[in-house]
Design a protein that fits this description.
The complex is a heterodimer of chains A (196) and B (565).
Chain A lengths: L4 E8 L4 H14 L4 E5 L9 E8 L12 E6 L2 H7 L3 E10 L6 H4 L8 H11 L2 E5 L1 H8 L5 H11 L7 H11 L2 H17 L2
Helix pairs in contact in A: 1-7, 5-6, 5-8, 6-8, 7-8
Chain B lengths: L2 H4 L5 E5 H12 L3 E4 L6 H11 L7 E4 L3 H13 L4 E6 H17 L5 E7 L13 H7 L3 E2 L4 H18 L3 E6 H4 L1 E6 L24 H24 L3 E4 L4 E5 L2 H13 L5 E6 L7 H7 L5 E5 L5 H12 L6 E2 L14 H11 L30 H16 L5 E2 L26 H12 L3 E7 H17 L4 E7 L28 H7 L4 E5 L4 H12 L4 E7 L3 H7 L6
Parallel strand pairs in B: 2-3, 2-4, 4-5, 5-7, 6-7, 10-11, 10-12, 12-13, 14-15, 15-16, 16-18, 17-18
Antiparallel strand pairs in B: 1-8, 9-11
Classes of the chains: A alpha/beta (196), B alpha/beta (565).
């Protein structure tokens, strides 16, 4: 049986967070790996933070608390920072570098943190760290909406999970609408190559 | 075809807890279902709604105007021998409780399952009341699944229990059981669903006048004893392991405890007493499960329901077994549990060291900008609020106005810069509390209610307010859908999805028929006209109603077939 892994996926409403989690879930079922996914629904989806957690290898509790995440996969840099306390020094952190500026910042009520400093902090303080411009890669793949799949590609590319690219590609073919399949498979590949 | 109809027996699929409940209904042969949406139960109604639209659907489903009506629909179906179902969020059970408390006396013929989803930590609710207390209050049996597979299995078994006892059975989840996906193994879909039954009149059963109710209450208490016997022998209550210390748990806490025991490696020190059928509290089962143990830890979110039952039982048996949980201060009555908090308590209970995870030093972290939920781009509610604010400003009474609010996306008007939601308790409370503010203060009262909420709980207080000659202006925010819970229909919708052929009840006709003389309809996007009309009606006395009509932008996009570029 594979190691037990807690993967926290975070981002902002509209980035396809839940689909990314479900793709991992479907792949796990294909590979006969025990899986449980928890999702955030309801008010939190309206422009707010969206978090999902994917538990692999027999973990049952659907919540990741302080220091418990083995992997943080974050679609937005501010949200990476917000979730850092869910990681321990042993964690892998994979983040998109493209900010989505909250309206509280646009209204002048708060400041968007200086991310470059924090990226070096993460580089130094976590077992593994990757920062990629997933938005650019998604556009290169043919659809700006594929940020989630680029990030998933990066996760697969690290080799932390026992999922091959082929399994993920197969899962994408089964789950994603046919006309988006090609772009998504390209997005997966770009993400995977970006961390190698 | 809807995927939940398609899956074959033996197939293993990734299902959301709430989807697993729906599959359970299809396998159990449920014939009639009704609900009012409410997070975290909403996906159940949504899936049933789409399934019921299929040709040759095996199930009748309706979105009723509120949880009470939905439970009445299901109750009558079950009285006619048809398996029936209703679901709701925890606060929906307050609305349905008027039916439920007496339905327990008269009982059912066909199996009836009441599904309730609690929301510890209040992810999307106004309180975190514990529905298990309702099960005790109504004397109804309750099952508590802890995984998507159990969501399906227990839904099916609940029908069997219901028919054996002739009582409705409650299945209770929490947010973390309803909104968790995991593999579920399909069973056979019921091929001969009883969609129609026949109601047999029984003079001394179905009409609980006092003479009948006195008999039926006695019957109910006898059924509670039988239900406890069923819980004692139920496979949903089980013991895992045979260590000398017992941990009693139910629902999502089972998962936290299992993980903690695994992570700590203390299997040989504990036995888990998993309570899938916790109410009525199966005393003989628990007594057997605790045979020879040194001490007990009870891990349950919110109220100490099992813990109190356990203490009573031990007291009656004059057993001096130490019980840890909420009374001992080990676990809180507040919020959902965090797995590490449970692990820490399990470690202490098993005399094991708990090693806290090592985090990098995050003390340099600045205050991070928040992303509070907001009304969507182009949302008509925002325009309505701005227009009302402008009209009140021009009239010079903005500072002296109270804004009773209601349940929906528009509750977000409490946030700056709008700040026009001052008081709220529950569905429909905007109207009833407006009457109270009008009776008790000299302040201007302008209240807000959504269209779906108006049909849910706004009609009766509006009639009361007109009759009692109160003084307030009610703004009905009509976006033609139940927006917040995912765009479910209600009786007032005028913008309809293709193929939706149910009639529209005009809110204007309803309001006028109730005797409201001061009425105006506005288009919130036409600012000048709207503000002028609002200024006029906000200067009037009596019960005034503004109908602000414009579709929810997300719903409009969906109904028109999506992408608009």
């Amino acid at each position: 049986m594979m190691d037990r892994k807690r993967i926290l996926i975070t981002g902002v409403g509209g980035q396809g967070n839940l689909l990314a989690a479900r793709l991992l879930g479907h792949a796990a079922i294909t590979m006969d790996i025990p899986v449980r996914i928890s999702e955030v629904h309801g008010m939190a989806q309206r422009g707010g933070v969206v978090e999902s957690a994917v538990m692999l290898g027999g973990i049952e509790s659907p919540i990741i608390s302080r220091g418990q995440a083995d992997v943080l996969l974050s679609f937005e840099p501010l949200e990476t920072l917000r979730s850092l306390n869910k990681c321990s020094s042993k964690s892998t952190v994979i983040t998109n570098t493209r900010p989505i500026v909250p309206f509280t910042v646009k209204l002048g009520q708060a400041e968007y943190p200086e991310m470059d400093e924090w990226f070096s902090f993460m580089e130094k303080n976590f077992a593994r760290f990757h920062a990629i411009d997933a938005d650019a890669m998604a556009r290169e793949a043919g659809t700006a909406k594929a940020v989630n799949v680029v990030m998933l590609g990066a996760l697969i590319g690290t080799g932390i999970l026992p999922f091959s690219r082929a399994v993920m590609e197969e899962t994408i073919k089964n789950v994603v609408k046919p006309k988006f399949v090609d772009a998504n498979i390209k997005a997966l590949g770009l993400g995977a190559e970006a961390v190698q | 075809m809807h995927p939940l109809l398609k899956y074959c027996s033996g197939e293993r699929r990734l299902l959301l807890g709430n989807e697993a409940v729906v599959r359970g209904l299809l396998e159990a042969g449920c014939g009639v279902a009704a609900a009012y949406p409410g997070t975290p139960s909403s996906e159940i109604g949504n899936n049933l709604f789409f399934i019921a639209q299929e040709e040759d659907s095996p199930i009748y489903f309706e979105f009723s105007t509120n949880e009470k009506v939905a439970m009445e629909v299901a109750a009558a179906a079950a009285a006619s021998g048809v398996r029936s179902f209703t679901c709701m969020k925890h606060v929906g059970m307050n609305v349905a409780s008027d039916v439920m408390m007496t339905l327990a006396y008269i009982g059912v013929k066909g199996g009836m399952v009441i599904f309730v989803a609690d929301d510890p930590s209040m992810h999307s609710s106004q309180n975190e009341q514990d529905s298990r207390i309702f099960a005790r209050f109504a004397n109804l049996p309750m099952l508590e699944p802890s995984s998507p597979q159990e969501m399906k299995d227990m839904t099916i078994e609940a029908f069997e229990i219901s028919e054996a006892l002739e009582l409705p059975v409650i299945v209770r989840s929490t947010t973390r059981t309803s909104h968790v996906s995991g593999p579920v193994i399909m069973g056979d879909r019921c091929q001969d669903v009883k969609r129609r039954g026949r109601f047999q009149k029984e003079l001394f059963r179905w009409v609980p006048v006092p003479a009948v109710a006195r008999q039926r209450h006695k019957w109910l208490l006898e059924q509670v004893d039988r239900a406890e016997d069923m819980a004692v022998s139920s496979g949903f209550n089980r013991v895992e392991g045979n260590g000398p210390r017992a941990i009693l748990c139910s629902g999502v806490s089972v998962s936290h405890v299992r993980d903690a025991v695994n992570d700590l490696g203390v299997h040989d020190r504990v036995r888990l007493v998993v309570m899938g059928f916790p109410l009525p509290f199966p005393k003989r089962f628990v007594m057997d499960a605790l045979e020879g143990v040194e001490k007990v830890l009870v891990v349950e979110e919110l109220e100490p329901v099992m813990e109190e039952q356990l203490r009573l039982m031990l007291d009656d048996a004059e057993m001096d077994l130490p019980v840890f949980g909420k009374a001992s201060g080990d676990l809180p009555r507040l919020y959902e549990f965090q797995p590490t908090d449970v692990a820490r308590v399990v470690a202490k209970f098993t005399d094991e060291d708990f090693s806290e995870p090592v985090l990098p030093d995050l003390s340099g972290m600045p205050d991070l900008p928040m992303r509070p939920p907001t009304m969507c781009k182009g949302c008509p509610h925002r325009e309505t609020y701005n227009n009302v604010k402008e009209a009140l400003k021009q009239l010079g009474i903005e500072e002296n106005t109270i804004y009773p609010s209601d349940i929906g996306c528009y509750t977000l008007a409490l946030l700056p810069p709008i700040k026009m939601a001052d008081y709220l308790t529950c569905m429909g409370s905007s109207v009833g509390t407006s009457a109270g503010f009008s009776a008790a203060t000299d302040q201007k009262v302008v209240s807000f209610i959504g269209d779906s909420t108006f049909f849910h709980s706004g009609l009766s207080p509006l009639a009361s307010a007109v009759h009692n000659k109160h003084n307030f202006c009610l703004v009905i925010l009509d976006n033609s859908t139940t927006a917040m819970t995912g765009q479910q229909p209600h009786p007032g919708i005028w913008l309809k999805p293709p193929g939706f052929d149910k009639p529209t009840i005009s809110i204007e006709d309803v309001v006028k028929a109730m005797g409201v003389k001061n009425f105006v309809r506005i288009n919130p996007y036409k600012k000048q006209e709207a503000v002028a009309a609002l200024k006029e009606i906000l200067s009037m006395d009596g019960v005034c109603v503004v109908l602000s009509e414009a579709p929810c932008v997300l719903y409009k996009k969906r109904v028109s077939g999506g992408r608009k570029k």
